[in-house]
Design goal:
The chain is built from 13 helices and 13 strands. By secondary structure, it is an alpha/beta fold. The protein folds into 2 domains: 19-46 and 275-364, Alpha-Beta Complex (Aspartate Aminotransferase, domain 1); 49-270, 3-Layer(aba) Sandwich (Aspartate Aminotransferase, domain 2), CATH 3.40.640.10. A 7-stranded mixed sheet has the order 2-8-7-6-5-3-4, sandwiched between helices. A 4-stranded antiparallel sheet has the order 9-10-13-12, covered by helices on one side. Strands 1-11 form a two-stranded parallel ribbon. Helix 3 (49-60) runs antiparallel to helix 10, helix 5 packs parallel to helix 6 (122-129) and helix 11 packs parallel to helix 13 (351-364). The longest helix is centred in the last third of the chain and has 24 residues, at 274-297. The structure holds pyridoxal-5'-phosphate. The site of pyridoxal-5'-phosphate has 13 residues, from helix 5. It comes from Aminomonas paucivorans DSM 12260. InterPro entries: Aminotransferase_I/II_large, HisP_aminotrans, HistidinolP_aminotransfase, PyrdxlP-dep_Trfase, PyrdxlP-dep_Trfase_major, PyrdxlP-dep_Trfase_small.
């Protein structure tokens, strides 16, 4: 049986998500070197201890019952934190899940999805999975978003605009003025999806405060996740803040038990863990400065970041550098598959991890000595 004959044609044009080499293979390549995983922008400090406690308690309570399909406690908590009502929040299986639900709710074949040319690949992915059309807009010279270019890319077929702020993988951020310009410029019937997976790491005072804006802008959808600063990537939980009518439509598509019981318990408790959040923020800010200064002092180009990773631009092919790093046990992300063959995204981990990774990088580039 040739299943491709009965599959949706748009699926045949796609490839499965490639998460990088399996860790087993990386371990073999790295030999005796300890593994330093800085390839997925996870929190190097671990998981919020309060979340861990809550998840252990939830597990001890039994895994035989289905979780709360409505994610009621978490949505009520988010509502009280943000001064909105619980029906403004859509909780799902990570932001990947939220983006799938948005796509399934709103994208028809041929609908256009505007996004930056060097950004989170899942935006292009949701367009492709729904038989829509991905419209990448070139980045500025400084690897930021070209807000005018994005506005100019809008057509009567545009259904969604994705802004990743701060952007993965460049670390650049759009400030309040440009954000509002984009929001005002996008027609009412086009969704502006602001993916703020890394917003807690941004310390630019001009970084926009967008969740309160959903009360006044029905076409704005703000995405937040527990995967990054709160260290729950393995549990898969994230949410959208949006107009209640939009959320109500999305709930017709969402899997009834999209967020599992451990993730719901962990997320709720993590919101109380200010200590872990602040410590993560401080560590990333200090390491971002320290590693940036190190690279600058050795003449290695990088993009100033508002996030928990650096886009490093060595003067050679990133694939080769990433392989040489892997042989030393350091895992980073080469951007050759994202049209940036000389771009290397390195997550900022603990100071020890960063010393190892950036030390190895400088050695490979022949820039160890200042
Ligand atoms: C910009 C951005 N959005 C969303 C996600 C996915 O987040 P989640 O783990 O909540 O699915 C990531 C993960 O790397 C990301 O970089």
């Amino acid at each position: 049986m040739d299943f491709s004959r009965i599959a949706r044609p748009c699926i045949l044009r796609r490839e499965a998500y490639y998460p990088g080499k399996p860790l087993e293979e990386v371990r073999r390549i790295a030999g005796d070197n300890p593994l330093t995983v800085l390839s997925a922008n996870e929190n190097g400090l671990g998981t919020s201890p309060r979340a861990l406690d809550a998840m252990i308690r939830a597990l001890q309570g039994g895994a035989n019952r289905y979780p709360d399909s409505t994610a009621g406690a978490l949505r009520r908590r988010l509502a009280s934190d943000w001064g909105l009502t619980p029906d403004h929040f859509l909780v799902d299986n990570g932001l990947d899940g939220v983006i799938t639900v948005l796509g399934m709710t709103f994208l028809n074949p041929g609908d256009e999805v505007v996004h930056g040319a060097l950004t989170f690949p899942i935006y292009e992915g949701i367009a492709g999975r729904m038989d829509g059309v991905s419209v990448p807009v070139p980045m500025t010279e400084g690897y930021g978003f070209d807000v005018d270019g994005m506005l100019a890319a809008l057509t009567p077929r545009t259904k969604m605009v994705f802004l990743c702020n701060p952007n993965n993988p460049t670390g650049t951020a759009v400030g309040r003025r440009d954000f509002l310009r984009l929001l005002e410029g996008v027609p009412e019937e086009v969704l502006l999806v602001s993916d703020e997976a890394y917003m807690e790491f941004a310390d630019d005072p001009e970084f926009p405060d967008t969740v309160p804006l959903v009360a006044r802008h029905p076409n704005l959808v703000v995405l937040r996740t527990f995967s990054k600063i709160l260290g729950l990537a393995g549990l898969r939980i994230g949410y959208a803040a949006a107009h209640p009518d939009l959320v109500a439509l999305a709930l017709r598509v969402r899997e009834p038990y999209a967020s599992n019981a451990l993730a719901l318990a962990g997320a709720l408790a993590a919101l109380d863990d200010r200590e872990f959040l602040e410590r993560s923020k401080r560590t990333v800010a200090a390491e971002r400065r320290r590693m940036g200064d190190l690279l600058a002092s050795r003449g290695v180009r990088f993009v100033p970041s508002q996030s928990n990773f650096l886009l490093v631009l060595p003067d050679r092919e990133a694939d080769g550098v990433a392989e040489a790093l892997m042989a030393r046990g350091v895992l980073v992300r080469s951007l050759s598959h994202q049209g940036e063959p000389r771009g290397l995204r390195i997550t900022l981990g603990t100071p020890q991890e960063n010393d190892r990774a950036f030390g190895a990088l400088l050695e490979i580039l022949g820039r160890k000595e200042g």
